[in-house]
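User: Okay, second chain of the day. Same drill as before: sequence in, structure tokens out.
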Amino acid sequence: MKKNVGTIDMVIRILIAVVVVVLYFTNVISGTLAIILLILAAGFFVTALINFCPIWSMLGISTKKKE
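Assistant: Same drill. Structure tokens below.
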């Protein structure tokens, strides 16, 4: 796996995941929408931690700075 998630992209993904979790635990979102958003938030969080996004890879996109 070649890393393709840059620092700004990583921070945005983590912030989105945190916001979704906070919205869920404060009961702002619930039901099926909440479950779907929590699954997406988990995906964002995992891809941010491992610095690899399979969707970016398939599209040939990299937000990581060239070394």
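The first helix runs from residue 7 to 25.

User: Thanks, on to the next one.
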